[in-house]
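Intended use. Records like the one below are meant for learning the mapping from a protein sequence to its folded structure. Do not use them to infer anything beyond what is encoded.
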Amino acid sequence: MTTTTIAIDMDIPAGVSVGEYERIDGGHAFHVSWQLPDNLCCETCQRESRLQLVEKNKFLSIRDLDLWGKPSFFVYQELYHRCPSCGHRQSLLPPFKRRDVKYTFRFEEQVLVSLIGSTAEDVAVRLGIAAETVERIVKNRIEDAKAKQIDPQRKIERLGLDEISRGIRDMRPFSQT
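Structure written out for the chain above:
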């Protein structure tokens, strides 16, 4: 059997490189890596030190955008930093996902866009995930928005009203009777 090389133009997050591709049970797996920091601040003792890399013999699969109608995953080896001061071991978080989730920021965005005109259950079935995952993604994005600071010096120049929204029946100003 003859083999050939096929190139796929793929939009990947900044700072991430794809090492190899593997077809897995109706999906796509991309083995990825990213630039590791030289120094890290320990989550426990708050001391900054040079990276003390510990590679775990475990690979993680993180859900990313669909490719050709099939789910794709970023696969990477789990990496840790061992603090030389206190010995605490902390996971090195890749730049394309948040802590304690199994999907990328891009997948979160796809879920949010899919929710327009659909229910969480509809989106979950369409993407092959649990409805609870859809709800967790929405909750995380709301918490992210709440954590952002709004510039108090900002001036609002225009304000739009959606007069087509349900619930707005009469557009008369409040001063009229």
